[in-house]
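lol forgot to send this yesterday, sorry. struct tokens for the thing we talked abt
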């Protein structure tokens, strides 16, 4: 059984729902989830929040968070995960935000920097990654690690 199937089984077993907000991965995680037959039993939906306007107006990230920490930060990832969970009435929210390149990187926030977070009402986990590779490789690596983060979170809090 692959990790997504394990996630689906845990969510279904515990009658929990999932929502996703993606920036740098452009919907790749949501696409993989929706390839699974039966995902409608646990998957509420996803938001591709590429611009800060969408992060603020759709997902509910506080403007101050973006101004003080930037769109690629631990705090913004947490706010995105909480926001999508609330916006889509899900039990669990996952967020991915980063710089996939080839442009947009800085010395402080280089290409390949990705923050991801997962939250429910009582728990949260956030991770920072520095991926190497092409734009498509960075996106794929980010999604793979988001799946791993989700599975770890579910095994820790829903076993």
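and heres what i got for the seq, position by position
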């Amino acid at each position: 059984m692959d990790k997504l199937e394990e996630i689906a089984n845990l969510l279904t077993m515990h009658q929990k729902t999932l929502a996703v907000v993606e920036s740098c991965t452009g919907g790749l995680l949501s696409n993989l989830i929706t390839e699974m037959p039966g995902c409608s039993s646990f998957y509420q939906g996803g938001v591709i929040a590429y611009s800060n306007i969408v992060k603020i107006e759709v997902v509910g990230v506080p403007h101050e968070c973006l101004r003080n920490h930037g769109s690629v930060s631990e705090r913004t990832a947490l706010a995105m995960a909480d926001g999508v969970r609330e916006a889509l009435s899900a039990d669990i929210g996952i967020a991915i935000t980063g710089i996939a390149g080839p442009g947009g990187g800085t010395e402080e926030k280089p290409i390949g920097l990705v923050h991801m977070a997962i939250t429910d009402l009582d728990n949260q986990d956030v991770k920072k990654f520095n991926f190497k590779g092409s734009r498509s490789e960075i996106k794929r690596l980010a999604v793979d690690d988001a799946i791993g983060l989700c599975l770890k979170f579910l095994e820790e809090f829903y076993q």
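The two ends are 17 Å apart (CA to CA). anyway ping me if u want another try
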